[in-house]
Amino acid sequence: MTNRILNVCMTLRMNATAVHMSDAVSSHCKCFYYEDCLGTSAGFPSKVKENVSVCLCHLSACVSAYLSDRPTPQMSSFKEFAVFVVVLHVSQHALCVEVEVDEGQESVLLPCHSNVSVGSTVLWGRSSLRVHARDQSGDVLQHQDHRYVNRTSMRADALHGGDLSLTLRKPVINDSDNYTCTVRQFGKDQDSKEVQLTVKGQGPDTDPPESYSALELQVAEPPVQQLEVISGVESVQLPCRTTAELHDVVKVEWTDSGDRKVHVHSCVPEEPEDQNQVYRDRTEMREDPLRTGNLSLTLRFPTVRDNRTYTCSVYSRAGPPRVETRVELQVRAQQVEVDSGAESVQLPFETTADLPEDTLVVWWCDEPEPAKKVHEHGTESDQHEVYRGRTRMREDPLNTGIFTLTLNRPAVRDAGTYACRVYGAGLIFLREKTFQLTVKERRPEEDENVDNRGRRSFTDPTPLMTDQSDR
Fold it and tell me: Is 146 left (phi over 0), alpha (psi -120 to 50) or beta?
């Protein structure tokens, strides 16, 4: 594929002069010079993969424009090549999905469909930017680029049905670019799709939609409360209390910044259950919240995937819904530090005991990428070679709830982000704890004074969060 694209670009470059194309047609041909198609003439192979699809799109536009231009004596000699380019573009259509949207629309869908299986992860990227990521347990947004925070979402069943399409909210002109949808399994790329997004600006006579009024947004939404906890706590409470009259309220609804239903308290028994499965069996509100005015939400087993802004809204019998509070939750990884050369280091994780026998417990190293399987309870299948013979867990962890991992002979290369993920039957997410492991290089002079058998590990300084609300 690389050679075909290079040949197309170089042939276009030669024929551009031979057929004396007009400036109007030439303006469409972004691929005359293979440096434009492949990045730079030096080291071009590394650029091919990310530019192939957009180059094909430009080639198709170039050929269409050329064929509609005034005929020249060289037209017949170029037609066969033009047909080849068009066929090439059509045959690679899946690599060059083009999406156009007007700036000011509520959202735009970037389509992507692929085969997925257990262990698959989908990554949406733009050049070197992380746009969105999702695995079997939910969204992975801790490394998401700031310009996409609270603006992206995927289907809850994306990695079960293969519809990996991305919804981008409130698209702006600067969002125009080539986006890549990559499917990975156990750290290896399995499939990749390209989507070219074009966001068109509004005309001079078009008024911006009212929903974009900054003043209106400031008036309609209360300030965002900041809340931070350490990964591994049993629960966290998102506070929401009001002194307003709630006698006409029929529903209290918590949603996240991905427009997903987190929890719904409804006075209408027949209302269908539409809580997102990511939060299933993890949320709870106090009894009779409309009488007490305490609309706080308890979220059990929060993870770094829960790093979002949460909104509590009330719905009355008459009038629009009213936002009562907004809470930005930050779940931080637990910091663990050890010297290289130590005998071992522990990543401590204790949780609820007496879990079912079919519970799956897997330790991963998420960063640096690609992700690597560190340890899986009960099997050594697919364990990354770097960790073979170096990891262990206590016996009978499902009955004790102790999932602590011991890593022998930690080295500088072992530094990174580790996560222990626990799944129930059907790969339903149960809980998770994340660690940031730092391995310090030991200076030679330290070896004389430090027993290699010693080790240091920082345990969570933050106690489990307790309910501080009115009792």
Answer: alpha
